[in-house]
Specification:
The chain is built from 3 helices and 11 strands. With about 180 residues, the protein is an alpha+beta fold. Strands 4, 7, 8, 9 and 10 form a 5-stranded mixed beta sheet that branches.
Length: about 180
């Protein structure tokens, strides 16, 4: 059985509005010392798996500097302190990035973003019956295009590498399972 580690020392390496990085000296339950061990604190992220009445998945294509490529993803972003709930953050991000909204919104759960190093969670909501309500309202640094992808094609992309963001693939499959659109047996 795995047990908690003991933090013997911690030092803030970087802290700003986007990230808080600590260098820690930790002792594992077995007694091993890992020094340094870095812990990254980000705000929670929210994403929306949004389907139109035509059974299209609303996606965004944008440049991702970390991997230096253009990626096809679900709409999402940080949960802001002003957001009343994670699902409202997901709906807000959907509307801001794509202009879509107005459907039935359901919160389906959270996943660890990278539980080995990061403290944040990915909050996931699903919206059915989404429709175009407005023009996107992008934040600085957001340069994206909106794509409505037939659900069957989106699933192909998820399993053949055309949708590379692992948290987004997991969110898609969680949402489809919750909607009864994915057999788990």
């Amino acid at each position: 059985m795995s047990r908690s580690w003991t933090i013997e020392r911690r030092e803030v390496v970087l802290s700003d509005r986007w990230i808080h990085v600590e260098s820690q000296s930790v002792r594992t339950a077995r007694g091993d010392v890992l020094d340094p061990y870095y812990v990254l604190t980000y705000p929670d992220w929210a994403m929306c798996v949004a389907l139109t009445e035509a059974d299209e998945l609303i996606m965004v294509r944008q440049y991702r500097h970390g991997t230096a490529n253009v990626a096809l993803e679900l709409p999402g972003g940080c949960v802001d302190p002003e957001d009343a709930s994670p699902e409202e953050a997901a709906a807000r991000e959907l509307l801001e990035e794509t202009g879509y909204g107005g459907g039935t919104l359901v919160y389906i759960g959270a996943l660890g973003a990278n539980s080995a190093l990061q403290t944040n969670r990915v909050q996931i909501a699903v919206m059915t019956g989404a429709r175009l309500l407005a023009e996107p309202h992008l934040e600085p640094g957001e340069e994206l295009s909106v794509e409505c992808v037939p659900l069957a094609r989106a699933l192909e992309l998820a399993v053949d590498g055309g949708m590379e963001q692992s948290m987004h693939v997991a969110a898609l499959f969680m949402a489809l399972a919750r909607l009864g659109r994915l057999a788990l047996s």
